[in-house]
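Model: Ready when you are.
Researcher: Fold this.
Model:
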Amino acid sequence: MAENKQPQIEWNDKDMRTTYVNATNVVAGREEVMMILGVNRAWQMNQEKVDVAISDRIVMNPYTAKRLAIMLSATVRAYEKKYGPLDIGVNTAPAAAPAAPAVAKATGKSAK
């Protein structure tokens, strides 16, 4: 039986650049996911207008986006295990699935 060998990956950082971001947005279509990255120079959230200087747009396919999401989630879990929870001021719990009657009403099918 042939052994399923994974290729060795060598990371070449010769042309890498580093960008600091503290503001992000993500938009997606059927075939790509875009991350918009920038810097929010306003530190008071009660301001009427917040100007974000967009520095980068990262475009990837949904498979790469899913792998990135898994890696980011694992990294944040490890960080919080070591340093404590990060409170970002929003509810990060997954949304509950709709109740059966709501699904039946939306689809026209009864739940069995």
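Researcher: Now this one.
Model:
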Amino acid sequence: MKVAVEGCCHGELDKIYESISYLENKDGVKVDLLLCCGDFQAVRNEGDMKCMAVPAKYRQMQTFYKYYSGEKKAPVLTIFIGGNHEASNHLQELPYGGWVAPNIYYLGYAGIIRFKGVRIGGLSGIYKSHDYKKGHFEFPPYSPDTLRSVYHIRNIDVFKLKQVKMPIDIFLTHDWPRGIYHYGDTNDLLRKKKFLRQEVESGVLGSPAAAELLEHLQPSFWFSAHLHVKFAALMQHEAKNNAAPKVTKFLSLDKCLPYRDFLQIVEVPDRPGSSELLEFDPEWLAILKATDSLQKPCRNFWNPPLNNGLHTRWDFSASEEAMMEVVSDLNGELCISENFSLTVPAYDPSHPQPNAPPAYSTNPQTTELCATLGLTDIYILAGQSYGEEGATGAIEEEEDADSTGSVEEPSEYPTDTSNLSSSYNPDEITIEDEWVEEENEEVGFTEGKGTDAVVPDSGAGSQESDRDSSLQRDMVKRLVLPPPGAKLEMRAPLRTPLHLTLPPPSTSFSQGSSEEECDLMPARVPKRSSGEATKSSTGHTGGTPQIKRRNQSIYTATEDEESES
């Protein structure tokens, strides 16, 4: 099967699907699956936008709401993880994963599912040490602190993934595993992203949690995004138990913008007898059941149980008996029921409601899964805890409020440091160098460079089209996965959502950088191009350049640009 991998989505679903369609028509292929590596922005309405860690003046509805409302249907089965620019109130409804729209599936805080026999896992969010050991305590309405901490990775989810024993084919994270840059062309990476040099040389770029998982899971493929640069690497792991050493092919991709490497297609061999639908993974569900009692929606630090004599149990891996119990719970059918339903009204362009508050309710998909397997709805736990403690610092939104982060949490949105919160990481740097690079790149385009583009015909009224700078390099190469495994199928009934009665919501307020090629990965696919005239502003005073962003109207404002990571 053909698998399309996309970097940072930023709500640009229409453009991503258009690019896939162009590739299919040009190369005579059919893409079976799309994997998105975070910053998906599943924004359903104006209220959801207020739950996105983006300064208010840069928020845009984008196009996801069309797929949520049913106006459009995703032409390709889509699986995604969360990043650091998400409608967090929406994704929190689905802690164990679920459909956010027909044919679009979210993996949850952490998850593993199967498609055509291929095991696909993922971990949502980005790593921040000061929140890593906390529980998932956040609940809307978010304060400026919780608006950011809500997407920070937690050790409970990493602990669950470290219980996995069976081979993983594909794994997704938003930020990179720490140290992965040593296994690719590091010099080329630093040539493209100069501001990363200090972190690379000091060995602190990336997520240590993801590095732990890379060492433990050793998947055949690992896809990431976040740093907005295409980068490929090949990592050979140490042999375990006298078995042949495994190799992981790593690929990070850019964001969906003109002339950027944001999309790549890999070919995965079909596995005979496997289902054409998404399936639950028995091992993963057994791990969820075993670790359910460990979940606490509190701010207190939690340390995973260790084999040190202090815990009665430290191994929560799935036994064959536990996996068979899960299959029995599902009546022998592992197929994920297509039970999507709207839980809040969709955005209506003809009747905008800019003052709509964020909505929060339980999701019937989560309710159904929890009832079937005996799991706890983490979202309800967090809501109950929130109701008992009251709003902890939730404040009204200031239209121009900004926020900051660290090098692991870069932002494409102009920010300043005038409104820092306790979520601020002192290891922050600005990423103005990236914007200078983009500005110079854009100047090149406006001066007539890049005229080798092969642009497909666009639909009536379209101002955007796809770009192919090298037809020869667009040919899809093959990447082979390990031998196939077996599977089963299933369907389950739909339940109605339970609306939570909690204090009225208040609104709040940012963060995201990628492009590298390696001959061990497939040739690159066409980059986006824009029919809109672009131009940049190079004049500035002081240390930080003033630049006009391209492609989206959110970038038209000229600001002193600094970013968090």
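Researcher: Key takeaway?
Model: The longest helix spans residues 13-27.
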